[in-house]
Amino acid sequence: RAALAAERKFFLSHPAYRHMADRMGTPHLQKTLNQQLTNHIRESLPALRSKLQSQLLSLEKEVEEYKNFRPDDPTRKTKALLQMVQQFGVDFEKRIEGSGDQVDTLELSGGARINRIFHERFPFELVKMEFDEKDLRREISYAIKNIHGVRTGLFTPDMAFEAIVKKQIVKLKEPSLKCVDLVVSELATVIKKCAEKLSSYPRLREETERIVTTYIREREGRTKDQILLLIDIEQSYINTNHEDFIGFANCYYTEQLVTCAQQRSTQLNKKRAIPNQVIRRGWLTINNI
């Protein structure tokens, strides 16, 4: 009390503070701080109340969920197992279809790599199947002579043509089977990536990888058998009447070969005629390719 009285007397007697002595001193400071605290509580309380109510509802819901929880309940274990396996399937599909939530911006993976195998790697392997024209002509010559035997033939025998063509068709086996191996390898990588979420359950992860990998290996064998079957089908029957086949199936005499070739070339040029190519300086424009 003595200190407050001395403080009051000081402000009332001091010429600099005399005119505002009622707003000076410890009592006024207490009143101002109380008002600030009250205002702060009034502003913060509604949001705090709403947050607490939300947390309370969440906790009550969780309590209700675990009220009858039994750790050894087999139904809960089965449900958890099914959920994890289902999530594995969803992740696998997303990585193949390209609809994942997290997009990798550093490298290709999953379906994108398989797409590149089909549209870049496989055509590249086909392009690498080069052949020496000189050797091919020599093989054709030997095939024709061996089929004629002691006779001197006038026309090219079909058997010689088929023997050479079948030899070229067989070359498709290696790149086709290699394409299957590349796709299967990428699928195995996708399986390992998707199984990472099961790392908390090593036995489940190992068994899941084993089952899915075994399934893919079975399909790999069927796929390769199907590819070999398709190549065998192409070897069994050479369709020279197909519209994409440039041959002389209807020409029977040597003099008619040139005429047939010219007619065939003219027909192809009519089909593939390219109207008006426009090339401008500075910018290159080619229409209707």
From TrEMBL:
<protein>
    <submittedName>
        <fullName>DNM2 isoform 11</fullName>
    </submittedName>
</protein>
<dbReference type="GO" id="GO:0003924">
    <property type="term" value="F:GTPase activity"/>
</dbReference>
<dbReference type="GO" id="GO:0005737">
    <property type="term" value="C:cytoplasm"/>
</dbReference>
<dbReference type="GO" id="GO:0005525">
    <property type="term" value="F:GTP binding"/>
</dbReference>
<dbReference type="InterPro" id="IPR027417">
    <property type="entry name" value="P-loop_NTPase"/>
</dbReference>
<dbReference type="GO" id="GO:0016185">
    <property type="term" value="P:synaptic vesicle budding from presynaptic endocytic zone membrane"/>
</dbReference>
<dbReference type="GO" id="GO:0005886">
    <property type="term" value="C:plasma membrane"/>
</dbReference>
<dbReference type="InterPro" id="IPR030381">
    <property type="entry name" value="G_DYNAMIN_dom"/>
</dbReference>
<dbReference type="Pfam" id="PF01031">
    <property type="entry name" value="Dynamin_M"/>
</dbReference>
<dbReference type="GO" id="GO:0008017">
    <property type="term" value="F:microtubule binding"/>
</dbReference>
<dbReference type="InterPro" id="IPR000375">
    <property type="entry name" value="Dynamin_stalk"/>
</dbReference>
<dbReference type="GO" id="GO:0098793">
    <property type="term" value="C:presynapse"/>
</dbReference>
<dbReference type="GO" id="GO:0005874">
    <property type="term" value="C:microtubule"/>
</dbReference>
<feature type="domain" description="Dynamin-type G">
    <location>
        <begin position="1"/>
        <end position="46"/>
    </location>
</feature>
<dbReference type="GO" id="GO:0031623">
    <property type="term" value="P:receptor internalization"/>
</dbReference>
<dbReference type="InterPro" id="IPR022812">
    <property type="entry name" value="Dynamin"/>
</dbReference>
